[in-house]
C-alpha cells in the first residue's frame, strides 16, 4: 500500500475514533466481559449493579469535565468527595441532624471547596494543576481531622434506604441522581450563554477576554460546578458504602480524569461533551464491576485503569496529529 | 538557469473545497516571485505544501533535481526551505533567542558529547535581529513584544536558518513603512546571494517595489505568470479579481465634520505602565478618525486601555456626552464599545469554534445579563447573525458551520469584523482592520466603515498603511512615543507630514 494510502486510513480511523471511540470501548468491554464471565452480564441484577458502581464516577467525571474543558484540571475532586461525605456524616451521626439538611450542607461544602479552588486559581494566576494538587492534600488533611481518621457509620435508616433504593426495582436512585446532574449540566453546556463561553475559554482565553467574556468569573463557575459535583458524589458514595470512610475518596481523582478523557474530552481544552463523559464514567463503573465479577484483585483494577488512561490519551493524540496532517 | 523549485500540477482537496486545481509554479535563484490572489485563492495552501504542512492530493514537487510526491516538514527544511507563516508561529512562552532556533538548535562537540552551542546561537541571533530591526534583548519573552515585533521575530526566525528558498506569507501586515523598508533591504541582499523568495502580500505597492515575477491565482486555479516590469498593477488587479477596483478617496472633504456634535471623546488617558500618556481626542458624528505612528508608538496600547482590556488607566471616556465606566472588555461592550484587535490568532478567533459561534459571541454578550453569564442560546438568532455577516462581508467558507481555523487568513479576519458588526456596536475601534484582506474586499470594507460613520456610529481606525488612512479617514492623529503629537485634517494630511511627525522630524 502506498504511503498516502496509509495516511488516508489513519485519517479515517481518526474520524471514526473521534466520533465513536467511547462507544467502541464500552462495547469492547461488554463483549470481553460477556465472554469471560457470561453470568456477570446475562443476569437481571447486572445492569443495576453496573449503574450503581458508575454513579459516583459519573458525578465526579462531569465536574472534572469542566475543569479539563478550560484547559485546566481538578485534582481535588476525590478529596472534596470524601470531605463532603464526612461533613454530612458527622452532622447526621454526631449532631443528630435530619438527613436532608445534613446532605444539603454536605453538598454545599463541596460547592464551597470548589469556590476556594477557583478563587485561588484566579487570585494567584497559577495553573489549576498546582492549586488543586495543594488543595487536594489540604482537604484530605481536614477530613482526617474532622473524622479523627475513623470510619463514621450508623446513619438514619431513612437515609440509607433512600440512597440505596431503586426505581421499579431496576434504576438505582444513586444512578438517577447522577443522570439528573448530567442532564442539567448538558443543558448548561449546550443551551446557555455561560456554557458556550466556557468552551470559548478552553479554545483561547486571551481571545475570549478580548471578546468580552469574563474569564475569571467563568473559571470560578467551573470550579464551583466541579466542587458541587464532587459534593453530591460524596453523599452518594457514603450512602452506597453505608459509612463515611476517610480513604473512600482516594483514587477517584484518577478515575474522574480517566472517565472525562475516555469520554472524549480533550486535554488541550475546548473540546468534549457531557454525554460522552457520562459514558466515560459508565465505562469506569463497568471495569470495576467486571473486575469484581471476575474476582480480580482491586490492585489490578488500578493497573488496568492507569493503562486505559494512557492508551486513550495516546490514541487521542495520535488521532489529532493524523487528522491535522492533511 | 535551473529553477530552485518546480511545483507541477499541484491539486489539493479539503473536505468540501478544492483549494488548488492543477497549479504549477517555479522559483528561480535570485528572484522574488510574488504570489497574488484574492482571499481564499489558495496562496497559503500552496506554500504550506512546499513547507510540508499539507500533502498535495495530486502533483509533484522537484527540488534540487529530486522529485517528491509530497514533502514532510523535515524534507522541506532539509532541502533548504524556510517559511514565514501568515499566522505567526512564534511561541509566546519562549524567549526571542529560543524562538529563532526552535527545533534546530546548533550544537558543538564538547568531550565527545553534543551540547547546545549558545555562543554561536547568540551571535547569529543578535546579528539577525539587528538586520530586521528588533531592538530588544535576546532573552526577552516573545509574549512581551508588540504584534509588529512578533512579526519581525517571525521573519528573523526564517532567515536565521540560512535557507535557499524563503517563503514570506504576508510578512508586512503589521509593519509600517520603516520596518518594511528594512525587510526589503534584507530581501535584496538575499537576492544577491542567489536565494529564491516567494512573496505573498495584499499590499499592491509592494509588488512593484520588490517583485521580479508575479503569479496570479484565482479560486484555486492558475491565471498566469508575468514579469513585474511588463505589467501594471491595474492589470494584475483585473487578473486576480476579474474586474476593476476603484481605489479612491472614501471620505467627504466638503463637509466640515468637526462642526458636528461630539460622539465619542477620550480625555487624558494615561496607562499606569506608561505606554501612553495624556491621550485626548474627540470623534464627531459621521467622522472617521485615524491613528498613525511607528511600531511601539502606543496606538494599540491606548485603544486597549480605553476598551478595558488593560484596565489600569487614568482618564475619562465619554459617549454622547455621558461618561463611561469601563473596567473590562465586557463592560465596554455593554456600554457600546467594540474593538477589532490586531492579532488575529491570539486575541481574535476562538479556534475551537465555527464561523457561526465566533460571530455570535459578541452579540450574545451584548444582550446578556449578570456579567455575561446570564441568558440562553438562541439557535435561529445565531444563524441569522452569522448569515447576515457572511453575506455582508462576503466571507468565503463552505458554510457558517465550517471551523474558523479552516478559513483562509483574510476570511478569518472578516469573521472577526463580523462579530463586532453583528453586535451593532456604537463605537468600533478598528486595529488594522484590513490586515490580510485582499484589494477588492478592502475597498468594500472602507465603504462599510464609511456607511457606519454616516449612520452615526463611531469609527476609530489604527492602521500601519498610510495610504489606507489617507483614503479613509477624515482626520488622522499621529502618535509618537506614547503621545499624540498632531492631528491632521484630511485636506492638510500627507504621507510626508505623517511620517515626519511620527519620527519626530516635524
Ligand atoms: N485546513 C483546511 N481545511 C479545510 N479547508 C481549508 C483548509 N485550509 C484552507 N482551506 C480552504 O482552502 C482555500 C484556500 O485557502 P488559503 O488559505 O490557501 O487562501 P489564501 O490564498 O492564502 O487566502 P488569504 O489571502 O485570505 O490568506 C480556502 O477556501 C480555505 O477555506
Ligand atoms: Mg493566506
UniProtKB/TrEMBL annotation, chain A:
Q: Which UniProt keywords apply?
A: Cell inner membrane, Cell membrane, Membrane, Transmembrane, Transmembrane helix, Transport
Where is this protein primarily located?
Answer: membrane
* Annotated localization: Cell membrane
Which PANTHER family does the annotation name? ABC TRANSPORTER PERMEASE PROTEIN YPHD-RELATED, ABC TRANSPORTER PERMEASE PROTEIN YPHD-RELATED-RELATED
List the source organism. Caproicibacter fermentans
Protein name as it appears in the record: D-allose transport system permease protein AlsC
Pfam families, per database record: BPD_transp_2
- CDD domains given for it? TM_PBP1_transp_AraH_like
Entry-linked InterPro entries: ABC_transp_permease
The membrane topology term of the UniProt record is: Multi-pass membrane protein
From TrEMBL, chain B:
**Pfam assignment, any one:** ABC_tran
Q: Which residues cross the membrane?
A: none
What PROSITE patterns has UniProt attached to this entry? ABC_TRANSPORTER_1 (PS00211), ABC_TRANSPORTER_2 (PS50893)
Cite the ABC transporter domain residue spans from the record: 5-244, 257-506
Question: Per the record's keyword annotation, is DNA damage included, yes or no?
Answer: no
Where found in the cell? Cell membrane
UniProtKB keywords:
ATP-binding, Cell membrane, Membrane, Nucleotide-binding, Repeat, Sugar transport, Translocase, Transport
- Does the keyword Flavoprotein belong to this entry? no
Recorded hits in SMART domains, A to Z, give: AAA (SM00382)
Give me the Gene Ontology terms describing cellular component: plasma membrane
Q: Which domain of life is it from?
A: Bacteria
Instruction: Report the SUPFAM superfamilies cross-referenced here.
Output: P-loop containing nucleoside triphosphate hydrolases
Q: Name one GO molecular function term.
A: ATP hydrolysis activity
Cross-referenced InterPro entries, in alphabetical order? Answer: AAA+_ATPase (IPR003593), ABC_carbohydrate_import_ATPase (IPR050107), ABC_transporter-like_ATP-bd (IPR003439), ABC_transporter-like_CS (IPR017871), P-loop_NTPase (IPR027417)
Q: Could you tell me the membrane topology recorded for this protein?
A: Peripheral membrane protein
The protein in question is named: Galactose/methyl galactoside import ATP-binding protein MglA
Source organism of the structure? Caproicibacter fermentans
Amino acid at each position: 500500500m502506498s504511503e498516502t494510502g496509509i495516511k488516508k486510513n489513519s485519517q479515517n480511523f481518526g474520524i471514526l475514533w473521534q466520533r465513536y471511540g467511547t462507544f467502541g470501548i464500552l462495547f469492547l468491554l461488554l463483549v470481553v466481559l460477556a465472554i469471560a464471565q457470561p453470568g456477570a452480564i446475562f443476569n437481571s441484577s447486572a445492569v443495576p449493579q453496573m449503574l450503581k458502581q458508575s454513579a459516583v464516577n459519573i458525578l465526579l467525571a462531569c465536574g472534572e469535565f469542566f475543569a479539563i474543558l478550560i484547559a485546566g484540571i481538578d485534582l481535588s475532586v476525590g478529596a472534596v468527595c470524601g470531605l463532603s461525605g464526612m461533613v454530612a456524616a458527622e452532622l447526621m451521626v454526631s449532631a443528630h441532624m435530619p438527613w436532608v439538611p445534613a446532605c444539603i450542607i454536605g453538598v454545599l461544602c463541596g460547592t464551597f471547596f470548589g469556590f476556594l479552588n477557583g478563587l485561588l486559581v484566579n487570585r494567584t494566576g497559577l495553573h489549576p494543576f498546582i492549586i488543586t494538587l495543594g488543595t487536594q492534600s489540604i482537604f484530605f488533611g481536614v477530613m482526617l481531622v474532622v473524622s479523627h481518621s475513623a470510619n463514621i457509620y450508623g446513619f438514619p435508616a431513612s437515609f440509607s434506604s433512600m440512597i440505596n433504593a431503586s426505581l421499579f426495582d431496576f434504576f438505582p436512585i444513586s444512578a438517577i441522581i447522577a443522570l439528573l446532574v448530567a442532564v442539567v449540566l448538558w443543558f448548561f453546556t449546550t443551551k446557555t450563554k455561560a456554557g458556550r463561553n466556557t468552551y470559548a475559554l478552553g479554545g483561547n482565553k486571551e481571545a475570549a477576554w478580548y471578546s468580552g467574556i469574563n474569564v475569571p468569573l467563568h473559571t470560578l463557575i467551573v470550579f464551583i460546578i466541579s466542587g458541587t459535583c464532587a459534593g453530591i458524589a460524596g453523599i452518594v458514595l457514603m450512602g452506597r458504602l453505608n459509612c463515611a470512610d476517610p480513604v473512600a475518596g482516594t483514587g477517584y481523582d484518577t478515575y474522574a480524569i480517566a472517565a472525562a478523557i475516555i469520554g472524549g474530552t480533550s486535554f488541550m481544552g475546548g473540546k468534549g461533551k457531557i454525554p460522552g463523559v457520562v459514558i466515560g464514567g459508565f465505562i469506569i463503573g463497568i471495569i470495576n464491576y467486571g473486575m469484581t465479577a471476575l474476582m480480580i484483585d482491586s490492585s489490578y483494577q488500578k493497573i488496568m485503569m492507569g493503562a486505559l488512561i494512557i492508551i486513550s490519551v495516546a490514541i487521542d493524540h495520535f488521532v489529532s496529529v493524523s487528522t491535522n496532517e492533511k | 538557469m535551473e529553477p530552485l523549485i518546480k511545483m507541477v500540477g499541484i491539486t489539493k482537496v479539503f473536505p468540501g473545497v478544492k483549494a488548488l486545481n492543477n497549479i504549477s509554479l517555479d522559483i528561480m535563484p535570485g528572484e522574488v516571485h510574488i504570489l497574488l490572489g484574492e482571499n481564499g485563492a489558495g496562496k497559503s495552501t500552496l506554500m504550506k505544501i512546499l513547507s510540508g504542512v499539507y500533502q498535495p492530493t495530486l502533483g509533484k514537487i522537484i527540488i534540487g533535481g529530486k522529485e517528491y510526491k509530497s514533502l514532510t516538514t523535515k524534507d522541506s527544511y532539509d532541502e533548504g526551505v524556510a517559511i514565514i507563516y501568515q499566522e505567526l508561529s512564534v511561541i509566546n512562552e519562549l524567549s526571542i533567542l529560543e524562538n529563532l532556533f526552535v527545533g534546530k538548535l546548533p550544537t558543538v562537540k564538547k568531550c565527545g558529547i553534543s551540547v547546545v552551542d549558545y555562543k554561536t546561537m547568540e551571535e547569529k541571533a543578535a546579528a539577525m535581529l539587528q538586520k530586521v530591526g528588533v531592538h530588544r534583548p535576546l532573552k526577552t519573552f516573545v509574549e512581551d513584544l508588540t504584534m509588529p515585533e512578533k512579526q519581525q521575530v517571525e521573519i528573523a526566525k526564517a532567515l536565521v536558518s540560512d535557507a535557499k528558498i524563503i517563503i514570506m506569507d504576508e510578512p508586512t501586515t503589521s509593519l509600517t513603512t520603516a520596518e518594511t523598508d528594512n525587510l526589503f533591504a534584507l530581501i535584496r541582499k538575499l537576492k544577491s546571494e542567489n536565494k529564491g523568495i516567494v512573496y505573498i502580500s495584499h499590499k499592491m505597492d509592494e509588488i512593484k517595489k520588490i517583485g521580479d515575477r508575479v503569479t496570479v491565482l484565482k479560486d484555486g486555479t492558475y491565471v498566469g505568470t508575468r514579469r513585474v516590469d511588463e505589467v501594471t498593477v491595474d492589470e494584475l488587479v483585473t487578473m486576480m479579481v476579474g474586474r476593476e477596483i476603484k481605489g479612491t478617496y472614501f471620505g467627504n472633504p466638503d463637509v466640515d465634520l468637526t462642526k458636528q456634535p461630539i460622539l465619542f471623546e477620550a480625555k487624558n488617558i494615561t496607562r499606569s505602565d506608561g505606554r501612553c500618556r495624556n491621550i485626548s481626542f474627540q470623534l464627531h458624528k459621521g467622522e472617521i478618525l485615524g491613528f498613525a505612528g511607528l511600531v511601539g508608538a502606543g496606538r494599540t496600547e491606548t485603544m486597549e486601555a480605553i476598551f478595558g482590556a488593560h484596565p489600569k488607566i487614568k482618564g475619562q471616556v465619554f459617549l454622547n456626552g455621558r461618561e463611561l465606566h469601563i473596567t473590562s472588555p465586557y463592560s465596554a461592550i455593554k456600554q457600546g464599545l467594540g474593538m477589532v484587535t490586531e492579532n488575529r490568532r491570539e486575541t481574535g478567533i476562538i479556534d475551537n469554534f465555527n464561523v457561526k459561534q465566533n460571530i455570535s459571541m459578541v452579540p450574545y454578550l451584548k444582550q446578556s445579563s449578570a456579567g455575561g453569564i446570564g441568558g440562553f442560546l438562541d439557535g435561529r438568532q445565531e444563524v441569522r447573525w452569522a448569515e447576515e455577516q457572511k453575506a455582508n462581508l462576503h466571507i468565503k467558507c463552505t458554510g457558517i458551520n465550517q471551523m474558523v481555523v479552516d478559513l483562509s487568513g483574510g476570511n478569518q479576519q472578516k469573521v472577526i469584523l463580523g462579530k463586532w458588526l453583528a453586535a451593532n456596536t456604537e463605537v468600533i475601534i478598528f486595529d488594522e482592520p484590513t490586515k490580510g484582506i485582499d484589494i477588492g474586499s478592502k475597498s468594500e470594507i472602507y465603504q462599510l466603515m464609511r456607511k457606519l460613520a454616516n449612520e452615526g456610529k463611531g469609527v476609530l481606525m489604527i492602521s500601519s498603511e498610510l495610504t489606507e488612512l489617507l483614503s479613509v479617514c477624515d482626520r488622522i492623529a499621529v502618535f509618537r512615543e506614547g503621545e499624540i503629537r498632531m492631528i491632521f485634517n484630511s485636506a492638510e494630511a500627507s504621507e510626508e507630514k505623517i511620517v515626519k511627525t511620527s519620527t519626530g522630524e516635524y
